[in-house]
Amino acid sequence: MIKSIRLRFIFWYTLILAVTFSAFAFVLYFHVSTSLKNELDDVLLTKAEGIARSINTYWDTEKMDALRHGARKNVFSKINNSNFLKIAGRWVEERSNDAELMDISVQIYKPDGKLIASSPNAPPELNISEKILPVLVTRKTFYEDRHIPVAQDAFLDLRVLQIPVLENGKAAYIVQVAAPLESIWTALQGLKFILFLLLPVTVVLASMFAGEFLASITLKPLKAMIGTARQITAENMSLRIPPPETKDEIRQLAETFNDMLEKIHRVLISQKQFIQDVSHELRTPLTIMRGELEVALKRPRSPEEYGAILQSNLDEVMKIAKLLEELLALARLDNSTTGLTREPTNITTLMRDILDDMGILARQKGIGIEFTFRDEITAPLDRDKIMRAFINLLDNAIKYTHDNGKIAVDVRRDDSGAIITVSDTGIGIPEPDLPRIFDRFYQVDKSRSSAGFGLGLSIAKAIIDAHGGSIRVASDQSQGTTFLISLPMEGHNPR
Amino acid sequence: MRILVIEDEKKVAEFIGNGLAEEGYAVDAAHDGEQGYFLASTSEYDVILLDVMLPKIDGITLCTKLRAEDCQTPILMLTAKDAVKDKVRGLDAGADDYVTKPFAFEELLARIRSLLRKKYLHQGTRFQVDDLVLDTATHTVTRAGAVIPLSVKEYALLEYLMGNAGSVVTRAMISEHVWDINFDTFTNVIDVYISYLRNKIDKGQKTRLIHTVRGRGYVLKS
Ligand SMILES: Nc1ncnc2c1ncn2[C@@H]1O[C@H](COP(=O)(O)OP(=O)(O)OP(=O)(O)O)[C@@H](O)[C@H]1O
Ligand SMILES: [Mg+2]
User: Fold this and answer.
1) Which helix (H) or strand (E) holds B207?
2) What mean pLDDT is predicted for residues B177-206?
3) How close A447 gets to chain B, by Cα (Å)?
4) For chain B, give me the number of helices (H) and strands (E)?
5) pLDDT tens digits, residue range B122-174?
6) How far, CA to CA in Å, does A477 sit from each of A137, A387, A402, A472?
7) A26 part of a folded domain
8) Rounded to the nearest 5°, which phi and psi values hold at B130?
């Protein structure tokens, strides 16, 4: 198999052109050769008929003279008439040199095949073959190709036409005209040379050049694309392939490639942002731990002081551990291979369990939680993960609601599945921040939520997305925030 | 010496405050940009430690604002390491120096001392430690009257050491202030330059002036 697209292109181009042209050459050759032969045959026929007519006229005039001189009537038949033989012989002698006849030789035979007269250019070896004589009586013309030996190893190819000249329905004599096939052959030879040698060579050469040319203009935009693609590295991902002006596959390729680059670029940027965010979140606890330890080590301290420092350091370690745990949870949710372990779960019961625990936190702030449900809903869910999502939502609701506020949780069913709403009477989320609160590490105000990392909602959303559900938020800074979660009743993983 | 710490992370502000207090500084803390601005513009401080990421008014804005209001107090920025832009912007905004989190407490102390020194040292063109004299106007260095020829880098290093004479300068401070470079591996290069300087300045002298402080850095003193 040819590996290079360019060579393949040239190969096929050449092959197709060669096949087309050779078919054309064969047809042309066949057509030319038959029409040349037909033409020659026509010429021969015209000549033969002309000669017959001419001889007959000649004979008729001679006959009139003879009549005037009182000859007997039966003598006027051409058949077996020595007079006619003489006259035909004379005609051939006188007229066969006519320029009109050119290299066509003329011979006249008696119906029994005996030669009456022969033009000087007729080859002496040319006769009339015995076997055609009976045929000639019934047929008006008889063509044949003759291959006549003229000398040692020398042959003459002739196109020969015999026509019988009739008198009262009987053959009176036979006119045989012959033309050398040589002229046709030389013509055909030339044509053969052109069609079967010159043409193929030209076609192959031309198509190789044309193929190469076509291949290069087709491949040129690809080359440009390759050049640009080579320049693209992680550092200059913003580079794009200029799509060609045309509207074809090459343009589609360029556009597809650019789309792909765009996606990779976005992933790279968010990856970079993510790493920056992670290291930023790690920096604060590390700064605290390092600083506290170094200050502590500067001089001996009391056990109480050491205790306080160790406790504070432990808190920071726990923070880092929490961050790691949350990042891991997100990474696992991102990784589609570790799917969900679904089991039929009663959402109402699950929610009641969660509220039992979270209620303790709420009560500490004097926040009341109201739980309402219209239906007992069972759906195939990954219990642990869904629990985590709701705990994150409730944790926020409690964290971002003033003391003595209210939280309401509602579970009901609709056409698409289970609908869970978690609403609070808290501080709300400013309108411009709403689209970003599900982003990783996004926090509306760093200082109002210094305990967390801004991962709670992104984890909740990732879990709900993995279940094929959706989460939406509505918020008003004077009334509070409502999260609306819908979970499908049939469990099919979206990915 | 009074120091103002503007840092929103309470525990960070707390250990800086405790550590500095133990070093004998009087420390005030502010937990956001507004409070910091209020303190900086109403009381006189010798050094301000300023976090870049602050609620209400961020560190860069606050720094620009203070400088615009003709506050001359040396400002030391506390930045996040990955944000190279932060450093440049901080210095552009008029900060005098910066440390990146998480920093070594000794590093912080050394930089504060350096800033205080800068504030009180009169900006003369002659530095003198014992019989070693450096003239910034003529770029000449003499010891006991004898001229010591120095390369450009050696001169810059000595100028920095003499500017901080008597107090420890860390390798990181040297690489940032003399070379404008901030890699840990670069400290080896600094050690080599210090040994060059020692050869030229201390070799054959009764009193050695360049001292190594183990684990901390170098100090130039008689
Ligand atoms: N119920 C709510 N009321 C008001 N603001 C909210 C509410 N829920 C979330 N937010 C805002 O959205 C931000 C993102 O929430 P998210 O749960 O992701 O992070 P976090 O609570 O700050 O930290 P973490 O959950 O990781 O401990 C919060 O910082 C907060 O500003
Ligand atoms: Mg949260």
Assistant:
1) none
2) 83
3) 7
4) 8, 12
5) 556 788 888 999 987 788 899 988 999 998 889 889 988 988 888 899 888 88
6) 123, 27, 12, 17
7) yes
8) 55, -125
Q: Which residue intervals of B71-170 are DSSP H helices?
A: 84-92, 105-120, 152-163
Q: Are residues B101 and B185 in the same domain?
A: no
**CATH number of the domain encompassing residue A293:** 1.10.287.130
pLDDT tens digits for range B22-43: 888 889 999 999 999 999 998 8
- Kindly state the percentage of chain A with pLDDT values over 70: 94
Q: Are residues B14 and B38 in the same domain?
A: yes
Parallel/antiparallel/unpaired status of strands B210-213 and B146-147: unpaired
- Tokens representing residue A79 in the block: 């058949």
Cα of A346 from ligand 1 centre, angstroms: 27
**Are A40 and A177 in a shared domain?**
yes
CATH number of the domain bearing residue A454: 3.30.565.10
A383 shares its domain with A326: no
Residues of B in contact with A450 (CB under 8 A): 9
Which chain B residue lies closest to A448 (C-alpha atoms)?
B55
CB contact under 8 A, B102 and A446: no
Per-residue pLDDT tens for B64-75?
999 999 888 999
Residues of chain A under the 50 pLDDT cut: 495
Asked which of A333, A356, A373 is the last residue of a domain, the reply is: A333
- Report the pLDDT value the prediction gives residue A447, as an integer from 0 to 100: 64
Of B58, B89, B120, the residue that ends a domain is B120
Q: Ligand 2 centroid to A215 CA: how many Å?
A: 61
In a domain, A195, yes or no: no
Question: CB–CB of A333/A284 below 8 Å?
Answer: no
Same domain (yes/no): A263, A319: yes
Cβ of B18 under 8 Å from any chain A Cβ?
yes
- Predicted confidence at residue B211, as pLDDT, reads 94
A454 lines ligand 1 (CB under 6 A): yes
Residue B22: give its domain's CATH number: 3.40.50.2300
Instruction: Kindly give the pairing relationship between strand B97-101 and strand B75-80.
Output: parallel
- CA atoms A282, A287, A290, A292: torsion sign: negative
- Nearest ligand 1 atom, CA A422: 1
A455 CB near ligand 1 (under 6 Å): yes
Q: Using CA coordinates, name the residue in chain A closest to B82.
A: A276
User: Which of A277, A328, A449, A458 for a ligand 1 pocket mutation test, highest count of atoms within 8 Å of Cβ?
Assistant: A449
B112 and B149, same domain (yes or no): no
Give the pLDDT confidence score for residue A450 in this predicted structure.
Answer: 59
What chain A residue is nearest to B19 in terms of C-alpha separation? A295
Range of the domain at A464: 339-487
Q: What is the ipTM of this complex?
A: 0.70
The residues, any chain, with a CB within 8 Å of residue A265's CB and separated by 6 or more, are: A237, A238
B105·A294 Cβ contact <8 A = yes
Averaged pLDDT of chain B = 87
- Are residues A446 and B11, on separate chains, in Cβ contact within 8 Å? no
CA of A457 relative to ligand 2 center, distance in Å: 6
Q: Which of residues 87-126 of B touch A (CB under 8 A)?
A: 101-106
The 10s digit of each residue's pLDDT in A308-344 is: 999 999 999 999 999 998 998 888 887 665 678 889 9
Boundaries of domain holding B159: 126-220
Asked if the Cβ–Cβ distance from A280 to B80 is below 8 Å, we say: yes
Number of structural domains, chain A?
3
A319 Cα: distance to centroid of ligand 2 (angstroms): 14
Tell me the pLDDT tens digit for each residue of A213-238: 888 887 887 887 888 888 887 777 78
Record: contact A280-B16, CB cut-off 8 A: no
What pLDDT shows up at residue A495? 46
pLDDT at position A124, please? Answer: 79
Q: Identify the pLDDT of residue A273.
A: 84
A284·B9 Cβ contact <8 A: yes
Question: Beta strands of chain B (E only): which ranges?
Answer: 2-6, 26-30, 47-51, 75-80, 97-101, 126-129, 132-135, 140-143, 146-147, 169-170, 210-213, 217-220
Same domain, B110 and B201: no
- Residue A72's pLDDT is 65
